[in-house]
Design a protein that fits this description.
The N and C termini lie far apart (about 130 Å). The chain is built from five helices and 20 strands. The protein is α+β, with helices and mostly antiparallel strands. Helix content is about 25%, strand content about 35%. It has a domain of about 210 residues. It has a 17-stranded mixed beta sheet that branches. The chain has a three-stranded antiparallel beta sheet with strand order 2-3-4. Helix 3 crosses helix 4. The longest helix has about 40 residues. The protein is elongated and about 115 Å long. It comes from Trinickia dabaoshanensis. This is DUF3108 domain-containing protein. InterPro entries: DUF3108.
């Protein structure tokens, strides 16, 4: 019987019968792979938020405070202490006299009340005028005392007295040479010079100068110099109500209460010094802040009471943070104000859009500053004989 196993015809017939089976198997495998990949993509799309890095979310906003007119009063004294439990009460006698301003909340009512009082007491006014001709000195004294005896309701605003503040500085968590905030305020204006030394690039300086007007601190000139780069100047033209820049030819309208990037810190400190109980977690105050080429609203939210670590130990503070203004906004500013230091900034951290961080942390003894607002009564090693530090003494009155 002939052997047909090596017959070409038989082999062809067998292969022709197996070919459809192999094609079906490959098709089934491909379809199963596509289904599995599709299911995996669908699952990832639904759960991709679980793989995103955790980002700190600010607390829910419960109140929004906006700039209000501020009238200069005649009240002076220590910064108002906070009454919240997490922050320790301030000891008596730890701060010198400081000017206090008041925000007007019912300004239109004052003229009406004065007019009504004058109409109702017309005869008395005539008698007073007759008596004034006989005794001019007594009349002048009475007229000067009358406005001062009328209380003004509203938010308190306490400007910190002058002095040098010393800080340890950090760049991306690495400690560098100490930095300073030289703060000077008088009856008419203020000056603020922030110096932060950074390795390789030089010292970053931020200078703010201006007056104290009906809305608190009113910058007139802001100078920013980063290392060896040319300085950038922002000008606040109060006469023409415009903001100008050296970095760009564009100008912006100057709203009331506008600040620069660092006067905003002291404006916030002045507001909190005046009425710390207003700034509870979630309370947000809106500031219009001009940078070196633009201006925008900064929502500064009260995060809450926290303890920060300094070289001398823990320090109770209240944390404030600028909220993101739009999606993808990575620039951030955090400020920690210490009630035991007269609500001065104990820590400032600025996060740049590229993620780098510049940080200042209180340096020196954790003692409350005196009237000169220095880190302590005794000078720190950073103070030198030629440093433009303010002399100790009581704060000068605001008219």
């Amino acid at each position: 019987m002939p052997d047909l196993s090596h017959s070409p015809a038989l082999r062809t017939a067998c292969l022709s019968r197996k070919a459809p089976r192999r094609a079906w198997r490959w098709s089934a495998s491909l379809a199963a792979a596509l289904v599995l990949h599709g299911a995996a993509l669908t699952w990832f799309a639904r759960h991709r938020d679980a793989f995103a890095p955790d980002t700190p979310k600010p607390p829910v906003q419960v109140a929004l405070l906006t700039p209000q007119p501020i009238a200069r009063g005649q009240a002076f004294g220590r910064p108002a202490p906070a009454r919240t439990e997490p922050v320790r009460a301030r000891r008596s006698g730890q701060a010198g006299p400081a000017p206090v301003l008041h925000a007007l909340t019912s300004a239109p009512a004052a003229p009406e009340a004065t007019s009504a009082a004058g109409t109702a007491a017309g005869g008395a006014a005539a008698s007073a005028a007759a008596a004034a001709s006989a005794s001019g000195a007594d009349s002048a004294h009475a007229s000067a005392a009358a406005p001062a005896s009328t209380p003004q309701a509203g938010l308190r605003f306490s400007v910190p007295p002058s002095g040098n503040l010393h800080y340890n500085t950090f760049y991306n968590g690495v400690e560098n040479a100490p930095g300073t905030i030289r703060w000077s305020s008088d009856r008419d204006g203020y000056e603020m010079l922030v110096s932060v030394p950074l390795p390789f690039v030089g010292t970053f300086t931020y200078e703010s100068r201006g007056r104290i007007d009906a809305f608190g601190l009113a910058p007139e000139r802001y100078i920013e110099k980063r290392g060896r780069r040319p300085e950038q100047v922002t000008t606040f033209d109060r006469a023409d109500k415009r903001i100008g820049f050296t970095r760009t030819s564009a100008t912006l309208a100057l709203p009331n209460g506008a600040q620069d990037r660092f006067s905003m810190v002291m404006q916030l400190a002045s507001l909190v010094r005046g009425d710390p109980d207003t700034y509870k977690p979630g309370v947000t105050r809106s500031f219009y802040v001009a940078d070196d080429d633009s201006g925008e609203l900064w929502p500064i939210e009260t995060i809450g009471d926290e303890s920060i670590r300094t070289a001398e130990g823990l320090l109770d503070t209240r944390h404030f943070m600028r909220l993101p203004r739009h999606d993808g906004d990575r620039r951030r500013i955090d400020v920690w104000l210490a009630p035991s230091l007269g609500w001065l900034p104990a820590r400032i951290m600025q996060t740049e859009p590229n993620g780098s961080q510049i940080e200042l942390v209180w340096r020196g003894p954790l003692r409350p500053p005196g009237a000169e607002n220095a880190t302590s009564v005794a000078k720190t090693p950073d103070d030198s004989s030629d440093a433009p530090a303010a002399e100790p003494g009581p704060a000068r009155e605001h008219p």
